[in-house]
Amino acid sequence: MDPRVSELFGTGAGLKSGSQGLGSGAGNGFGLGLKKPGSKSGKKAKSRSSRGTKPSNNPPYLPPEVSVLSYRLKLVNPTQYRFEHLATQLKWRLQEGRGEAVYQIGVEDNGLLVGLSEEEMRASLRTLRRMAEKVGADITILREREVDYDSDVSRKIAEVLVRKVPDDQQFLDLRVAVLGNVDSGKSTLLGVLTQGELDNGRGRARLNLFRHLHEIQSGRTSSISFEILGFNSKGEVVNYSESRTAEEICESASKMITFIDLAGHHKYLKTTIFGLTSYCPDFAMLVVGANTGIVGTTREHLGLAMALKVPIFIVVSKVDLCPCGTVERTVRQLERILKQPGCNKVPMEVASEDDAVTAAQQFAQSPSITPIFTLSSVSGESLDLLKVFLNILPPLSNSKEQEELMQQLTEFQVDEIYTVPDVGTVVGGTLYSGICREGEQLVVGPTDEGKFLGLTVCSIQRNRSACRVLRAGQAATLALGSFDRSLLRKGMVMVSPQMNPTICWLFEAEIVLLFHAKTFHKGFQVTVHIGNIRQTAMVERLYGKEELRTGEKAVVRFRFIKHPEYLKVGAKLLFREGVTKGIGHVTSLQPVSL
Q1: For position 375, what pLDDT does the model report?
Q2: Are residues 557 and 419 in the same domain?
């Protein structure tokens, strides 16, 4: 972990590390030398902050600026020329951050925490608000803190979130996969967040999320469902408590969190893996019941998210059911697992709104940070901290990566297939690259014979509201009119006719065998997950070895059993068969000539 990040956190924010401390301080994310409003200064405070460490007279610094984070000492009465320059700079930062930027007011360009007087702070915030209005954005003050070093005058710094929906988008969009063992409270938590009403303790909040009768009867999710939570430009929650339809939420929200509710029962593990590999979530939320601790599929889901390199944060639910000692024991158990050599994570317990802001910013910058929330869906305890975290959570990819993907040819992954009355065949999935418009001509495949068939995109919907243009990285449903549904299957791709897709029966992959009861050898059959592909494949050859055991690496040649698939070199691969599990990536393809 970057030592500067360690210094930034301090131990006071609930950041838990290994046996070595990570420095001292207020733990408020602004760096060292700050105090919270109303905190006592003097000998006692100084002795507490320096306990166990050597006193330091060095002035407090923050890490260097990044494209979406700007340091400004003061913005008091700028000239017109200076104001125009600042507004242009803000516009650039918003573009780089895909609609979001954070300003630290009262901080030198080199990161030195100087602070401003009350009057200077008010004037600076007025200027920032004018800058935001000029570029069509809104500002939200995340937090204000006093700088407390070698000064008798009260000086403050402020952290401000600036948000603007990009001109070519309806709203900012983040996808969060929800993982955890059966009965840990995943669907109930999503029901509370998206419906705006607390649960009654018997699972009432989750009823609106279930898709099948047997799910309502058993109370267990067996399929993948999607739920949306919006935030407006001021950071206020927009959900079904104030909006009757998804269209109203989309219109009111400037930032949208799409939750992918996955199954917790081991029986539905293939559905959970499919949701993680095909829907390309930005983040994963692991829900752990405080009363049960780490049981069932919890470890497995954590391992899957880490194998697929999906950043993960943890929610300990049902804290209303058990005493504080039980909750604390569950959190300590999680911390031990996260610090193990296989995980190498730094747990950060979120206990205040200040911690939530720090956690959101550092979580996106450092993959080793793992925020831990403890909350209740019945009493609503600490639920607001999770909302603050989700509101501030920035997108992982920047605008440059997004533009590069949009300039490529169209490629849409087919994850779901429906037949809708009066509409016809509808497919759901994610646009991996390019741009897709209404009326566009695409080809879909491969079929069992390895061919691609032509079709027309009649209409597009995102989050149940109409959309004319779909951009790379966005999930949507596409109406295909009278196209024969029987010709489609999950795992297909819809691509531009100009693309020359590589179709193959045979492919090679470098794999690591995570677990196998005996030996992994030629002729062994496994279920392979590659993106939205889920199919049985046979091991045709192990290069340089006769067999594999748990923990060993090898390059393996696989052959699909049922039909050829569209693959790319470098794609992440995950395979399973019973207790056998392994991960890897595709290294080479043997294309079929069309």
Answers
A1: 95
A2: no
Q: Are residues 467 and 541 in the same domain?
A: no
Q: How confident is the model at residue 467 (pLDDT cuts 50, 70, 90)?
A: confident
What is the per-residue pLDDT for 514?
Answer: 86
212-216, 258-262, 423-427, 494-498: segment of lowest average pLDDT: 212-216
Q: How far is CA 267 from the centre of its chain?
A: 25
Read off the pLDDT band of 254 (50, 70, 90): confident
* Per-residue three-class SS string for 551-568: CCEEEEEEEECCCCEECC
Closest CA to 189 of 390, 361, 331: 390
- What's the distance, CA 369 to chain centroid? 13
Tell me what percent of the residues of the chain surpass a pLDDT of 90: 46
Q: Same domain, yes or no, for 179 and 148? A: no
What is the rounded average pLDDT for all residues in the chain?
Answer: 83
How far apart, in whole angstroms, are the C-alpha atoms of residue 464 and residue 82? 44
pLDDT at 173 exceeding the cut of 60: yes
Residue with the bigger pLDDT between 73 and 33: it is: 73
The count of other CB atoms within 10 Å of the CB of residue 154 is 12
Q: Specify the pLDDT at position 267.
A: 82
Residue 355 pLDDT > 90: yes
CATH code, domain carrying 373:
3.40.50.300
Q: Are residues 248 and 116 in the same domain?
A: no
Residue 481 covered by a domain: yes
- The pLDDT value given to residue 540: 94
Residue 475 amino acid letter? A
Report the alpha-carbon distance of residue 246 to residue 426 in Å, rounded: 19
Total of domains in the chain: 4
CATH classification at residue 585: 2.40.30.10
Residue 316 neighbours by CB under 8 Å, 6+ apart: 288, 289, 290, 327, 330, 331, 334, 372, 373, 374, 375
The long-range contacts involving 2-7, CB below 8 angstroms and separated by at least 24 positions, are 2/63, 2/366, 4/63, 5/63, 5/362, 5/365, 5/366, 5/369, 7/31, 7/32
Round to whole Å and give the CA distance between 144 and 36.
8
d(CA 376, CA 382): 7
- Regarding whether 367 and 344 lie in a shared domain, the answer is yes
Q: What are 564's two structure tokens?
A: 């050829």
- How many Cα atoms occupy the beta-carbon half-sphere of 37 within 13 Å? 7
Q: Measure the CA–CA gap between 363 and 344, rounded to whole angstroms.
A: 14
The answer to whether residue 30 is domain-embedded is no
In this structure, the answer to whether residues 145 and 157 fall within a common structural domain is yes
Last residue of a domain, one of 495, 511, 526: 495
User: Containing domain of residue 445, as a range?
Assistant: 400-495
Coarse DSSP helix, strand, coil percentages of the chain, rounded to the nearest 5 percent: 25, 35, 40
Is it the case that residue 539 has pLDDT exceeding 70? yes
Of the residues 457, 474, 495, the one at which a domain ends: 495
